[in-house]
């Protein structure tokens, strides 16, 4: 049975796509790359060549290729919608890097297409759901040892941002992870978002509101606060403390070798999300490939609905950021097809 | 010189007053109790007797007593004002348990009286300023290694509340410590307060908004958030993470013996603030007595102005809590007499 | 290229073998099980069946099978020698669970056979070399930031032992990991071993010397001490602190979610080595399969020589244990074929 | 009652003596310095002057002074014996810095003198018994939650040594603390000592065996190992892990603000024992003064017997160090007068 490997088509051969190609080639069982698409054909062929796959400049060719069993989308969010709709039409399992699409309206169209198709096909790449620590936190909350969750305190820090990074992208690219994490941990939807900012760091680019304090209310009544600081200067940190009625649990404390030497004691800080969440990405891909083999999606993974709900929360977040007031999340009623 | 011990009058012989009597008797050098006042004369005499002092039911008798060199006020906040004004008039050094007085208006009268007297006499009992970890955090911020501070994330948890504890008291009795801590650490005033609450814990008394998320803006542009949770069920926790432009520092992580046994690894949690801040109280009293010997107040301690500023922030906090909106802090301009 | 999967023959379908079968099927890329051997044919067929492989009762059939590209040996150590010699003769890459063989003499015969064959074929399953934390510790020592290593303090604890576990097995099955870890971290051979024991725990089976304190001297001059405690009752712990001339580094501190609740703060303890070192096993297997594809062994993995050196140290350890005195390790001179 | 302060005579005005003078003046209640003796009269007068005491060059004058209620001995160990004997004869409470005397024979004479006097007068300055963490560790062992103790793993590191520090002093001055700590925590005597050393650190002075691994056996059957490393270069560290039949407990993990900044996360390391054990010294002195007021010694403190037993263990330690073999501790039978 395992002899038939899942033949994967990869759309997008940038940094993320290339990482995923390596992941499929070296760390995942039961799957291999068959074709890689990128508008930059050289890049497509380079990534493809390292994996014994073929390269193409046409993304839709991947979806139309009859030798492709499943698709990984790692191209920019702006081109996701038509690809997702085509894959759904062909009944192909998809692992789509976040965001599902850039806005809630287009995400909803994908939701409706999948619902109409009547089969769960799309998984969104919120990899924290596959991180061992976050998974243990979810387990702790689910078994109820901490009592009902009342608050989440989140910290999300990056060393620095690439040129052109905007305050809005801090919501769409960064806080979107906390939106999904909170929805998943709490099992509830986000209802409203507020954004506050202290004076910006002198280490952040001119004009960027950095850091920000994002708070959001959820349908369960739990409140979430997020420090997002994308030019903290010292590394990548993701921390989440759940406060329950009877106890609290924190993930994201620093690990690794504990060193003592002149200057003090301590350890190193992750450079970036690839370093911190490498194992989570591996697990995400393995479980996706395993599920795709069986013609289903992983129930723990983020669904199309989750991608849509995250997009809706981001829209409210950006609105809250620009107006300085609380913004409500506008979300369609959840269809039965998507159980939480 | 040390042969002349500072003769201290203690007003209030309740739990806090009795603790302070013990502190002066056993752990502080250069001071001794001369007289103890409490409306409950038995209680006054019991505490006084254990220290070789005399007891009285009349608080003002302590201040009028010519054998008293300095006064500790540990009675309820509602009776502080006239005692403070009398002590200032007599030129007596005072260590006044928080709050200075119950509201900003009366606190301001004490400020004005002290300013008129032209001599710093009153020290307010914000003991965290004398905690070794908080002091080290302040030092880190002051030397500038972390860059300018942008945010403080605070957590303040109590196991449970006594009967009759109200949502307003969570601001006046609990968050007041974070108001002072933030002002002290940041060297800036609080300008506005916002209060948000998730659904309340089922472990908290009916009607109490518990926990709450209090955020406040400061004149330095730094933003502060505080989780106040007074029925968390498991113990006493005070944590503060300062986020600077170039680094962060956290105090209040758990210490003590690290135990491994069946069920897991870990340690114990402080029972209450006396346990957690016992050393800080000792240091606060010792430094107050040392300064009083020299006819001055400790520059690190909270001044009358600090007590007034905390009262003003509390008023804004309670207003923000009841209206659900941001409330600005109404603070007189700081006179030169009180340098930050 | 990756299309040709490495066809793996597995010898031994007990708990460890079944784990490795699952590993190859689900978490490793580029390899698949072709045949599984176990004297218990039902067990062999059950494990084989779950992986689309065939089962057999004859271990040597695996090695003689022309469709097998590489072999995993997970059978008892007592039967390893002839299997290893046969695999070497056929030029097959082997991943052999520790021990290489049960004693230094037979291990040396395997060393000599491989040396005579002139090709590195055998890798011994010391999985700590693939653990992220231990690898980082090795990197720290190799770059020299801590100065030359002077001591290692090791702790190795198991919750409990299966029936029949003996004091000698504490050396052969448990401390053997520290022998390999020390040789690898320090890049030097073990020269002498001493074993001391306090009174045994009442929680350990009658007659078992448990815990023990094993110290050993290395050719680099560094000294290693190991607490081995196989009935500690509370879980599985592996800790190692390297003490260098200019600093120290500790791996194996407890991680996972940090929980606060009634009773204290803390986290969970690993149940067993599969839990603690699961990722290390995955990495070990992936790198072995990758190297086998290229007809070589992984340079970081334990070689036949390392297996032999560990066996020699174990013999000295058991001798030291029985005599109560220091026992020297009797090791052949290392041939050039096996660079450290 | 508190009005009568304990009038303390201090012998020795070096670094340690001056520290203790400051301690008595500023942080201890109910005691004051009356006279300070030091062969260097200037130094004596300087320390005395800062405390309103008188200075003298004659140590015995302190003991003969009828205005002295109790004596602190902080002079070199070589001159302790006659001072202790004189104080015992006069019935004066003594707090004697370790060592009691430089060797077991002279220590035994002090034991016999005190026993003959029939009154506990002497307390030896093993301050760890007053450290909050060590006290909690003792409590954990005493209540039995961890089961009977089987092993102690100790680490004792100093940044560097003063000129002239010898391998023997590593036992007499440093490991002597672990001898007392182990006796106190385990409630049992030390029976034999073994000393092993790796090659010495290039950061240690020529000729010094540094670090060393000292192991000792106790009458309870528990085994203790100590890493003593007095030129570790990075700071002062004292760590102790107790391994019980059902659990373990570790004290001495690093605390203080947890900082994240460029270069990593971590905290600072104590500079020296004054920094790490300052609070313990304060508590030791306060309890000694309180007990002296009542004409007794503190039952938690180290007694004359404890000083003698430590000296005997040191002698065995130095013998083990020089011979490279196990050395038995030669200890008189404990008289009833000194209950453990």
From TrEMBL, chains A, B, C, D:
UniProt keywords, alphabetically: NAD, Oxidoreductase
InterPro entries per the UniProt record, alphabetical: Gfo-Idh-MocA_inositol_DH, Gfo/Idh/MocA-like_OxRdtase_N, GFO_IDH_MocA-like_dom, MI/DCI_dehydrogenase, NAD(P)-bd_dom_sf
Catalyzed reactions per annotation: myo-inositol + NAD(+) = scyllo-inosose + NADH + H(+)
Top-rank taxon: Bacteria
Keyword field contains NAD: yes
GO molecular function: inositol 2-dehydrogenase (NAD+) activity; nucleotide binding
Domain called Gfo/Idh/MocA-like oxidoreductase N-terminal: residue spans: 6-126
UniProt family annotation: Belongs to the Gfo/Idh/MocA family.
HAMAP family cross-referenced by the UniProt entry: IolG (MF_01671)
Protein's UniProt name: Inositol 2-dehydrogenase
Source organism: Saccharopolyspora rhizosphaerae
Name of encoding gene: iolG
